[in-house]
Write a structure and sequence with these properties.
418 residues, alpha+beta, Penicillin V Acylase, Chain A, eight-stranded antiparallel sheet, six-stranded antiparallel sheet, Peptidase_C69
C-alpha cells in the first residue's frame, strides 16, 4: 500500500494573522465510508473502570476532558478533533521498515481520542499517546473490511502556544516541538535530526536492526522510513504542495486560508477517487487563554462541496444528533468476531441530504453553482459571527450550546431550498 491519504497542517504566529494558531486536516478514507462529528462531555470515572476502544479494552482515567471528534462512524477513536483546553490532534498513516502489525491493539485513531480526553496541553498529549503506545502497541485493520489494511501513525498536535510532531514505528517513536511558523505532514516521516523527545530505546533498536551504524548523525526519517528518505519532495507530492500553499500565505494564514488549502484539488490535498476527503476540520485557537477556540467541521465528504460549521466548547453543549451515525451496540459487525462480516448503514442525517445535493451539483452545472454559492454564503456568515467571539469572547454561553447543530440545520435548509 503506497502512502496515499491524509494531510494535516498547523500554522502558528508569526505565520498567522493575529495571535492565533490555525489547525487543519482532511481525513482521506475509503470513498464509501461515513464520517461523523460527535461531542462527548467531560466525565469522572470510578477507580478500576475500563474503556472499550475499537478493538481492545484498556484502563480508564479518573477524569476525561470534553472532546469534539470527526471520526469514521465504525470507530471508537477519531481521525481528528479537539478538546476543551484547545488541544487539537490529527493523525496520518505512515509506513516504516518495520511491518505494521495486524494483531489487534490500539489504532492510531484510538490514540487521537485518548490523547484529547486525557491531556490539557500538546506536550502532555505526546506523553499520553506514547505511554499508551508503549504499553499496548498499535495494530489492527484500519478499514471496515477484512483487507487487513494496517499502518503506523504520525500525529500533529497543537495547543494555544505550540505544536508537536509525533512519529511512530511499532512501539518506538520520536517527537519534535514546533514553536513558530508552520508545519504540515502527509504520509511520510518528517522528523530528521531535531528530536526533542524519544523512546529511550529507539536508537538502540535501530542499531540492533542494522538500520543505523551508531556513529553517523541520527536522522529518524532516514533510519525508520521504508524509503531511503521520508521527505518526498518530488514535484506534485501532497507534502510539497501543502508546504508551498502555506508558504504562499506565510504571515497572513487565516481559517479561510486553511479551508482553501483543504479544498485544493490540483495539489491532491482534496482527494478524489477510491480514497477521498471524507471529512475536514479547521480550528482557530487564540493564544490568549481568555478567548475561546472555534472548531469548524464539515461532517461530509469533499470540502469543496461542504460547509465548514463552527463548534465552541461551552458548558451544557448539546449532543450533535444530525451528524451522529446510527449505533448498533454489541450487534455491530465490528464488535462481533469474526469481524466485518457485513456493513450496516452508517449514514447520518446530514450525510444523506448532502449525498443528494452532491449528485445535483455533479449533474447540473448552473444549479450546482447556485447551490455551492449558497453554501459558501452560509459559511461566510458563520465565520463573521465567529470572528466577534474570537475577538471579544463568549457573552452568553447558553446560546452557543447548540451552535453546531443550528449551523447544520441552516445547511440543510440551504439544501431543501435548492
Amino acid at each position: 500500500m503506497q502512502p496515499s491519504s491524509c494531510d494535516t497542517f498547523v500554522a502558528l504566529p508569526p505565520s498567522t494573522e493575529g495571535q492565533r494558531i490555525i489547525f487543519g486536516k482532511n481525513s482521506d478514507r475509503p470513498c464509501d465510508e461515513v464520517q461523523e462529528v460527535v461531542y462527548f462531555p467531560a466525565r469522572d470515572y470510578a477507580a478500576e473502570e475500563k474503556v472499550e476502544c475499537t478493538y481492545i479494552e484498556i484502563e480508564q482515567v479518573g477524569h476525561t476532558y470534553a472532546v469534539v471528534l470527526s471520526r469514521p462512524a465504525w470507530l471508537w477513536g477519531a481521525e481528528m478533533g479537539a478538546n476543551e483546553h484547545q488541544v487539537c490532534i490529527g493523525n496520518e498513516a505512515v509506513w516504516s521498515r518495520e511491518s505494521a502489525d495486524d494483531e489487534e491493539a490500539l489504532l492510531g485513531m484510538d490514540l487521537v481520542r485518548l490523547g484529547l480526553e486525557r491531556a490539557d496541553t500538546a506536550e502532555k498529549a505526546v506523553d499520553v499517546i506514547t505511554e499508551l503506545l508503549e504499553k499496548y502497541g498499535q495494530g489492527g485493520s484500519c478499514m471496515e473490511d477484512e483487507s487487513g489494511f494496517t499502518y503506523h501513525n504520525s500525529f500533529l498536535i497543537s495547543d494555544r502556544k505550540e505544536a508537536w510532531l509525533l512519529e511512530t514505528s511499532g512501539k518506538h517513536w520520536a517527537a519534535e516541538r514546533v514553536e513558530d511558523g508552520y508545519c504540515n505532514i502527509s504520509n511520510q516521516y518528517g522528523i530528521t535530526t531535531k528530536i526533542d523527545k524519544e523512546h529511550p530505546k529507539m536508537r538502540e533498536y535501530a542499531q540492533s536492526k542494522g538500520w543505523w551504524d551508531g556513529k553517523t548523525e541520527f536522522n529518524f526519517a532516514t533510519v525508520y522510513s521504508f524509503m531511503t528518505t521520508a521527505r518526498i519532495e518530488a514535484s506534485g507530492s501532497r507534502y510539497c504542495e501543502g508546504k508551498q500553499l502555506l508558504e504562499k500565505s506565510n504571515g497572513h494564514i487565516t481559517a479561510e486560508t486553511m479551508m482553501g488549502i483543504l479544498r485544493d484539488k490540483d495539489s491532491g490535498i482534496n482527494m478524489e477517487g477510491m480514497f477521498m476527503s471524507t471529512g475536514s476540520m479547521v480550528s482557530v485557537i487564540p493564544t490568549n487563554p481568555e478567548l475561546p477556540g472555534v472548531h469548524y467541521f464539515t461532517a461530509t465528504p469533499d470540502p469543496e462541496r461542504s460547509v465548514f460549521k463552527p463548534f465552541i466548547f461551552v458548558e451544557n453543549a448539546r449532543p450533535l444528533k444530525e451528524t451522529s451515525s446510527p449505533s448498533y451496540g454489541p450487534d455491530d459487525p465490528v464488535k462481533k468476531k469474526p469481524r466485518f462480516q457485513s456493513k450496516p448503514n452508517r449514514k447520518h442525517e446530514l450525510f444523506v441530504k448532502h449525498e443528494l445535493v452532491a449528485a445535483i451539483i455533479e449533474s447540473y452545472k448552473d444549479r450546482g453553482q447556485k447551490i455551492t454559492k449558497n453554501m459558501r454564503d452560509l459559511e461566510r456568515m458563520k465565520m463573521i459571527e465567529m470572528e466577534k467571539i474570537l475577538s471579544s469572547g463568549v457573552d452568553k454561553p447558553d446560546i452557543l450550546a447548540d451552535l453546531f447543530s443550528r449551523s447544520v440545520q441552516e445547511e440543510m435548509t440551504v439544501y431543501s431550498k435548492s
